[in-house]
Amino acid sequence: MTLGLLQEMLLKLVTSLIFTNLSENSKCFKIREAIITRKLQKKSQNPIFSKFHIFLTLNFHRYFNFFYNRKTFCVLNVVRIVGFDGVEIHGATGYLLEQFMKDKVNERTDEYGGTLENRCRFVLEIVEAVVNEIGAERVGIKLSPFSDFEECGDSNPKALGLYMVNALNKYGILYCHMVESICKETNDEKTECLHNLAPMRKAFNGTFMVTGGYERQDGINAIAENRADLVAYGRLFIANPDLPKRFALNAPLNKYNLGTFCTSDPVLGYTDYPFLE
Fold this sequence. Notes:
Layout: H1 3-40, H2 47-81, E1 87-91, H3 96-101, H4 116-134, E2 139-143, H5 157-169, E3 175-179, E4 185-186, E5 189-190, H6 198-203, E6 207-211, H7 216-224, E7 230-231, H8 235-239, H9 243-249
Parallel strand pairs: 1-2, 2-3, 3-6, 6-7
Antiparallel strand pairs: 4-5
């Protein structure tokens, strides 16, 4: 087994442990909060309601500190022991951190809900914690303000994206990886995006990376027009393990199979795409 393969396996394991633990416990916490809140909604004028809300907020801080200690321990191991260059914080595509940021799913009424600043507070606390442990030069973040994946949408995604990149400038992180906005696909055909990331690109001080249905020429154009510093490819890389070589030669690409992206099969749709001969 090569060192590179071992590093990849360890990263997948550590990432899975971090986000499974954090997501599951936060989910349980959110369910418990929702049940209590529903029971008390009709008694909102009762002093007990505010007492419960204070209790829930204190519990949230306790959970945050509990997982913060374990998460930063894993982050330190990944960087200092396994030897990875850095960590990308996943704040996109409907995952836990994005659920805090988006007003269509965040129904909290404490300091982590309501206003834009409050909804982004938890994510920025995570950024600060990781930066303090491993250094800003080793930290990136992925965001998708325009995405409504799994109904995780926002009423003003442009304002959300701009607020986040400006807030991130304070920490001096290495890069912001942002998903291109609402590129709908029908029968594998893309339609024109309804928004663009230019304002976020202009506001962010670090390296700005974009992703979201880019083809070869799309990426070339994005760099040439200074709309991004880097372009990330996902689906095309799954189907084309030698994608850089194919791009360099402008060679034909394997067509990806969406139906195999989330299966548990370790080979089908994962390692069975052919290389260039």
